Amino acid sequence: MGGVDEREMAPLLKEKLDEAEVSNIVEPFWSTNYMQADTTALKPPPFFKKSSSYFAWLSQFSKYMLTRSHSNRNSVWKDLFYACRSAIRSQAGIDVAEFVFPLLVLDGVCFGDKHEEDAITSELLDALSFEDDKSAMELRQREKAANLVFTLLDVLKHWLEQETERIHKPSKGKSKRVYRPTSPTGGNSWPMESSIKKIERLLARIPFSSCAVAASKVGMHARALQYLEMDGRSKVTSPGGANLTDQSKDVSKFLKSQFLDGIDLQLTQNMLGQLSDFDTMIFVAQKSHKSDMTRILAEDAAEREMYEDWEGSFQAYERLLDSRLSNEDEGGNIPAQKGLLRSLLKLGRLDSVLNQAYGMSTQGLSETTDICNELLPSAVEAAWRLGKWSVLDKLVNESSGETAFDADARYQLEFGRTLRNLHSGSTADVVTSLTAARDSVMSSLSGAARVSYTQSYPCLVQLHALREVEEFSLSLETGEKRDQSLDHVVSSSEWRDRLSITIPDATGSNAIINSRLAISRLMDDPSIEGGMWLDVGKLSRKGRLYQVAEHSLAQADVSLSKCLMKEMKSSTTVSALTSESMGKLKLQFAKLKHSIGESTTALKIIEDEYQQRYFK
């Protein structure tokens, strides 16, 4: 196809390429001297513990299996794998690496030696291990690695079922052989009996318990529960697991598979609670070990928290912490401490959250910085909700390493960092922290969306709260336009309608209400807070949540009174907006009194307002 010089293109070929209008694309590749070569030596495993990102781990691990396959004469598809080596080196080719990954693992297991099989198994277990946190990879990257392993296990199990079904499928004729896909060289792609045994052995070396813990860490609650169930049934039906139950030996193997023994029942309860299956959660609690008082208190606290009984969960976590004062395992206090702070946040006891966080961090049981980092997200949220900007600035600066935080904790930290940047006037940092907070919410939403809309609802409310802060940050302009722009945002229909999609709340568990309170205190503008509480009170009254409505209207009265006093100090007149808001407030108070049966009080409120407005 070349001319006199091999680097010159033949006239006929060049003419054809010109007709196809691809000559300019092909010609540089024809005349180039570029040759692809592996300049770096192959690194030995382990890879996961040394990798700082998901892509680095997948690239190095795939390159290891690819190189081993290329040097293995028994590997049928080694040339195909070797042709993909360029794709796995760049971030753009990560989809190719993920697609080829199950085939590389199967090739290494079927045609590789025991050393390669052990290396592959070790890497998969490291990716699922969240107990010994020796990896340099941050949590959001570990979520991708765990998801890749789950996909691999599903694919291998699917292939195993297909191969097994193909073996036991009766043939239509004696002379016909079972169909097997062939390789380009004409031989069978995989040895059938050998591949079945190798896949079974690999799957057996990946414990269901490790998969369940990893799935719970990355937010895959339904998958975690599935692995826990598979773990319990496999232990009961296995030859060595017959003594796990107290049932009679005469019980059939099928009936024994209905019992779940030898699994982490506390993790099972937690996953059932996350999936809102409270009846099953209570039943599992009744079957758990009742002799362990600590376990009973932990299950009671988790159950109350799932039912959103925040006062009950707070008391349960307090009892749980008291029962562990003599426990030598310092790390055992961390879940109870975090649960206690969560309950206090939901109850609106923000000062207690800060006091408890500082107190727990200075206790003899909690001297390490790791425990302080675990409590930091709750303390950050309490600080910005209280409007303590100096405390917030100090706490945000302390959160240097965030690799160990889950998605919810990252959201708390990034939301607090966003408000800190707003307070300091750093517009560029506001955009960065808002993006990071939104990424954290999307990470939680992707896991919750696999289950149900109910699980996704809190994440959607958090996204709306971030949108409110974003709109507010865009309105912060210099000069006279600033107040006009802020008034336009607050009076917009989108701003008002967001409260209608949320559940009215007066304790502080509503993310949109909390964000508006923070904005009001950030701007030192009580009219924003007063208008917000007035809308919440109106929605609560219409929803027959009379206690919430009364509390909200009382909060609106305090805020609007502050606004009234502020205007009276600056001028002798009251603005029309404040006067109108005070009139709406009294009208809502009258409607509330009428709704709860106090019609006389409602009429008196209306008469007083009428007299003040027309006979002053």
Automatic annotation (TrEMBL):
Record's subcellular location: Nucleus
Coiled coil regions, renumbered to chain: none
GO annotation, biological process: DNA damage response
Top-tier EC class: transferase
Segments of skewed composition (Basic residues): 169-179
One term under GO cellular component: nucleus
Gene Ontology MF terms: ATP binding; protein serine/threonine kinase activity
Annotated ranges, domain PIK-related kinase FAT: 377-611
Subcellular location, principal: nucleus
Keyword field: ATP-binding, DNA damage, Kinase, Nucleotide-binding, Nucleus, Serine/threonine-protein kinase, Transferase
Biased composition (Polar residues): 182-191
Chain segments carrying region Disordered: 167-191
Protein name in the entry: non-specific serine/threonine protein kinase
Organism per entry: Skeletonema marinoi
